Every structure is written in structure tokens, then in C-alpha cells.
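Good morning C.,

I know you're traveling, so I'll keep this short. The sequence:
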Amino acid sequence: MIPTTRVRFAPAPTGLLHIGNARTALFNFLFAKRCQGIFVLRIEDTDLERSTDQSIERIVEDLKWLGIFWDEGPDRGGPVGPYRQSQRLSAYHDFADRLCQGGKAYKCFCSEERLDKLRREQLSRGKMPR
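The C-alpha cells, ready to paste straight into the viewer:
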């Protein structure tokens, strides 16, 4: 029987695990166990400049210290891996290309400077950048 409940915890490894992360991981872990489901650890390491292997190791150690263990993850594998987002980038690029080819998306050719300027303008008006 395949469990119908799948929850995940997806920390960004850009620093140490903080109390908000620990709370989210604990709630998701307990929910999965209560429902006899699967708890997945997915590492959200797409910020390649700030993500570090040392942060991943510390997050894993901290979760284990808290008694939070995952059923699927980067160190355990599972049917829907890989569990490090950076290892899935080619799949995301392929899908984005299909969306563009199907006329359902388009590439942005704005410079980084223009995007930064637009972000600042939107934030100064109290809006979320988009």
C-alpha cells in the first residue's frame, strides 16, 4: 500500500537551522507519522552562491539531534529523487524550454541592473517584487 500522505521539509542550506525551521520540520514530521505517511527531506540548494555543504551537514545533524528522521532524502534516496534541488536543474530547464516552445512562457532578456531597479521601485511602493 502506497501512503497517501507525503510531506516535506526543504531548508535552504545558507546557514544554520533556526527555530522556525525546526518548528516546521517537527510539525511536518509528526503529521507524516500520524498519517502513516512519508516525510521527505529536500535540500533547497538553488542559491548556489550562498549554499554550502557545511550548512547541509549541520542541518542534517541538528534534525537528527531533534529526533527528526526522514523516509526519503539526499542520504537515503527514494522514488522521486534527487533530493537536492541543484541536481534537478536540468529537468527544470527542459520544462521551461517546453513552456517557451509551446507559447506558454517567454524568456526575459532584461539586464540584472534593470531587474534590480524594478525590484527597488516596487519595494519602495510597498509592493512585492515580481
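Safe travels,
E.
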